[in-house]
């Protein structure tokens, strides 16, 4: 068996999220160097604020201006910061109960080492130099020995409130297609299309995924299929894809390769788009520098009889 | 009418290694075959199938649909999926059997934790407005909980080391360096790939399929507020409430399989569940020995049930968790027939 293939797989997503009135007031407040909480019916102040009481599920809207100093309620020393975290030098993760609040906010504490941190220590917000209305407008916390800061009722009204955030994320994976697909991809390098046969129902699956979906059994016997096949069904693509150098309209088809019991898909070339039809006999066309058939073109054979491919539609 | 439901078979992979050479379905299939073989059932005999997994582990959308090839999903079967640990898939299957819609169910779950940076991947399940932009990884959040326990006098670092050592069957000297202080390597779960499957059956069908079925006497799941700063991290009221609803406190149990990926979380769970030293905790080694994410909770139910099947337990507790710092918790109470 060839060595299993791997490749880097990067998943990146910039989710745009809209904010409700409470989250908007809180994040806009951070932009203006103010921390807002929300007061529940029974008089607790939640920071960061939420729109519904976690105990009663009642809607809450009463905003309160809490302090920018507070007390560490628990902490953890992070000697090896990871990508995206608030500081790139060793720091403490902290939950901080800001003055005037009854709940704690998660953030980072900039401190020289773990011996300088303890539960109950006094800390103060360090603002980011550039603020946009996001939790990262608090750059981090820093140790503070001063008095408790002022706490006042706040209307939560700002000019130009923040309406949303963009939550960017990136995760780096090492993707492996597994045994069966590795074998398929490896065979493509030799311009061969290889499927796998189910030991029970004897159907040949291409590309193989390692299992027969009908029998739920592992497939392992390799079978070379094609290079000719039959168009079982098709569609005409009229919208040009970004970064794809193919003129529209073109035809995308399901192709039952000879010897296969499952149709794969591919582009049809070498024939006007409006002359492609079910039953058309085609063959794989390989071009230099690609590791898979670029497209399939007519072989010139007579069309296949419907009965020969109707099970593969 | 109340139907009795039992776990009648359990199978799992050897989790101790990365399975990069296998696709998810290739990893899962032997486990499905093994659990079916244990009962003599064929795919066509299964009335309902339910699975648990997460696309974020694989980095691909709808990854669970490919795993269905290993089940034999043609001709069409009655099937469902939860984007959670398989213990919650088991809960859904249990409900299905209770309604009388099915007599047998196959529940499976799997996770390949090794393709991506698991600590970072798990940050994507956090509050996207206030928490996820800071990328607090799973060990960091568990470490905050551990420090809260230490400050409260509920544990200390040597006691945590002893939990890790007992789980691994080794001495606590090999506890390793800090990952995020106060948690050391030995307090944290290994990152690994794996799969698990169980078969549920109702009433007489369970007795036909298994010599000593593990009857689910009660099962319940509860959740905490999502904001960590709202919660008392030294306690797990959701676990206690789920346990109460599952009937745990009506009679003592002899075994508890606790899904505590971090040593400190076992301390929280023991306290929440009122477990004393008479209860054998995690004889399987628990999640500190093997933690295939999305399967580790289902494995706790399976391990507890397997002990009843083997006659090593008469009444066992199984617990599963999901989310940071024990956010969501499921408790099942399993019993074997009197001997
Ligand atoms: Zn088959």
UniProtKB/TrEMBL annotation, chain A:
<protein>
    <submittedName>
        <fullName>Uncharacterized protein</fullName>
    </submittedName>
</protein>
<dbReference type="Pfam" id="PF12172">
    <property type="entry name" value="zf-ChsH2"/>
</dbReference>
<dbReference type="InterPro" id="IPR022002">
    <property type="entry name" value="ChsH2_Znr"/>
</dbReference>
<feature type="domain" description="ChsH2 C-terminal OB-fold">
    <location>
        <begin position="64"/>
        <end position="127"/>
    </location>
</feature>
<feature type="domain" description="ChsH2 rubredoxin-like zinc ribbon">
    <location>
        <begin position="187"/>
        <end position="216"/>
    </location>
</feature>
<dbReference type="Pfam" id="PF01796">
    <property type="entry name" value="OB_ChsH2_C"/>
</dbReference>
<dbReference type="InterPro" id="IPR002878">
    <property type="entry name" value="ChsH2_C"/>
</dbReference>
<feature type="domain" description="ChsH2 C-terminal OB-fold">
    <location>
        <begin position="223"/>
        <end position="286"/>
    </location>
</feature>
<dbReference type="InterPro" id="IPR052513">
    <property type="entry name" value="Thioester_dehydratase-like"/>
</dbReference>
<dbReference type="InterPro" id="IPR012340">
    <property type="entry name" value="NA-bd_OB-fold"/>
</dbReference>
From TrEMBL, chain B:
<dbReference type="GO" id="GO:0006635">
    <property type="term" value="P:fatty acid beta-oxidation"/>
</dbReference>
<dbReference type="InterPro" id="IPR050215">
    <property type="entry name" value="Thiolase-like_sf_Thiolase"/>
</dbReference>
<dbReference type="GO" id="GO:0010124">
    <property type="term" value="P:phenylacetate catabolic process"/>
</dbReference>
<dbReference type="InterPro" id="IPR016039">
    <property type="entry name" value="Thiolase-like"/>
</dbReference>
<protein>
    <submittedName>
        <fullName>Lipid-transfer protein</fullName>
    </submittedName>
</protein>
<dbReference type="GO" id="GO:0003988">
    <property type="term" value="F:acetyl-CoA C-acyltransferase activity"/>
</dbReference>
């Amino acid at each position: 068996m060839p060595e299993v293939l791997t490749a880097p797989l990067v998943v990146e997503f910039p989710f745009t999220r809209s904010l409700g009135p409470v989250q908007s007031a809180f994040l806009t407040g951070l932009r203006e160097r103010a921390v807002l909480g929300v007061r529940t019916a029974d008089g607790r102040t939640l920071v960061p604020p939420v729109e519904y009481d976690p105990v009663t599920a009642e809607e809450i809207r009463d905003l309160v201006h809490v302090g920018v100093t507070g007390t560490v309620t628990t902490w953890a020393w992070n000697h090896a910061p990871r990508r995206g975290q608030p500081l790139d030098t060793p720091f403490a993760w902290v939950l901080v109960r800001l003055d005037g609040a009854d709940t704690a906010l998660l953030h980072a504490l900039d401190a020289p080492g773990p011996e300088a941190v303890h539960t109950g220590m006094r800390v103060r917000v360090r603002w980011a130099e550039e603020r946009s209305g996001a939790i990262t407008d608090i750059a981090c916390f820093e140790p503070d020995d001063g008095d408790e800061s002022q706490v006042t009722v706040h209307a939560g009204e700002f000019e130009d409130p923040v309406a949303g955030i963009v939550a960017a994320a990136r995760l780096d994976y090492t993707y492996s297609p597994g045994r069966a697909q590795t074998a398929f991809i490896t065979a493509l390098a030799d311009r061969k299309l290889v499927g796998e046969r189910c030991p029970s129902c004897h159907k040949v699956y291409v590309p193989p995924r390692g299992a027969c979906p009908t029998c739920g059994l592992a497939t392992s016997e390799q079978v070379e299929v094609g290079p000719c096949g039959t168009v079982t069904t098709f569609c005409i693509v009229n919208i040009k894809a970004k970064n794809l150098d193919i003129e529209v309209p073109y035809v995308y088809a399901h192709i039952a390769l000879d010897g296969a019991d499952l149709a794969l898909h591919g582009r049809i070339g070498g024939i006007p788009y409006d002359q492609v039809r079910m039953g058309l006999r085609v063959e794989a066309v390989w071009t230099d520098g690609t590791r898979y058939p670029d497209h399939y073109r007519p072989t010139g054979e007579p069309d296949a009889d419907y009965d020969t491919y109707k099970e593969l539609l | 009418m109340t139907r009795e439901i039992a776990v009648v078979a359990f199978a799992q992979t050897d989790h101790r290694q990365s399975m990069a050479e296998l696709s998810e379905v290739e990893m899962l299939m032997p486990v499905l075959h093994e659990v079916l073989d244990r009962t003599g059932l064929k795919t066509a005999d299964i009335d309902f199938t339910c699975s648990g997994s997460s696309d974020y582990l694989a980095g691909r959308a709808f990854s669970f649909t490919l795993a269905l090839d290993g089940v034999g999903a043609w001709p069409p079967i009655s099937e469902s999926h939860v984007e959670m640990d398989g213990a919650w898939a088991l809960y859904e299957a249990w409900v299905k059997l209770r309604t009388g819609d099915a007599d047998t169910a196959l529940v499976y779950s799997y996770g390949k934790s090794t393709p991506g940076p698991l600590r970072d991947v798990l940050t994507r399940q956090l509050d996207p407005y206030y928490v996820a932009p800071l990328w607090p990884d799973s060990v960091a959040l568990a470490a905050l909980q551990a420090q809260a326990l230490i400050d409260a006098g509920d544990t200390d670092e040597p006691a945590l080391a002893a939990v890790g050592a007992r789980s691994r069957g080794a001495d606590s000297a090999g506890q390793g360096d800090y990952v995020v202080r106060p948690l050391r390597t030995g307090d944290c779960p290994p990152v690994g790939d794996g799969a698990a499957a169980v078969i549920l059956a109702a009433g007489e069908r369970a007795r036909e399929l298994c010599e000593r079925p593990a009857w689910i006497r009660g099962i319940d799941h509860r959740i905490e507020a999502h904001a960590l700063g709202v919660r008392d991290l030294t306690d797990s009221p959701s676990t206690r409430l789920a346990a109460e609803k599952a009937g745990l406190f009506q009679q003592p149990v002899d075994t508890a399989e606790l899904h505590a990926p971090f040593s400190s979380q076992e301390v929280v769970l023991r306290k929440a569940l009122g477990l004393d030293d008479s209860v054998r905790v995690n004889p399987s080694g628990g999640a500190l020995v093997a933690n295939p994410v999305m399967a580790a909770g289902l494995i706790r139910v399976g391990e507890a049930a397997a002990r009843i099947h083997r006659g090593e337990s008469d009444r066992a507790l199984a617990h599963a968790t999901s989310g940071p710092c024990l956010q969501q918790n499921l408790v099942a109470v399993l019993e074997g027939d009197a001997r």
